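FIELD: query
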Amino acid sequence: MPLITSNKIVKDIEKAGALAMYVPPEGGYEGRYQRKLRSSGYDVLFITARGLGDVSSFLTGVHGIRPSHLGKTQIRTYFIPPLIQYRLASLPEKSKGLVVWLTEGKYLSRQELEVISQIPAKDSRVKIVIEVASGREVTWQPLTQAIAA
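FIELD: result
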């Protein structure tokens, strides 16, 4: 594995706002890019795209969660704060922003990817990286180009 000596991913994510990443299926390479982002001043939120449900509500709005019903107990809904705004509120002052790193992005629909690609336009401190497919080596492109293809 070659060492990552350039800040190409940092420059590209600051320029594009949202990146579609193609990674080898065995994994391991993306951790180096996450370390590069952390050393550049970003906080990285690492989540999976499976089970997100309504993507815009889960990431940017207050949403309700119902635990599994186990019998004769009352069904309750717990309201959880938006994941991105919650993490942005706890960022240190010197931080550049938040990078939301989504794995298993291949399970998201085109419409969900479009919603996610619009999040950095609403808040410039938020950047998005989505692992959308497998590749022989780690490559990326702006998410808007990946959606259009």
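FIELD: remark
The beta strands are 18-23, 42-48, 63-65, 78-80, 97-103, 126-134, 139-142.
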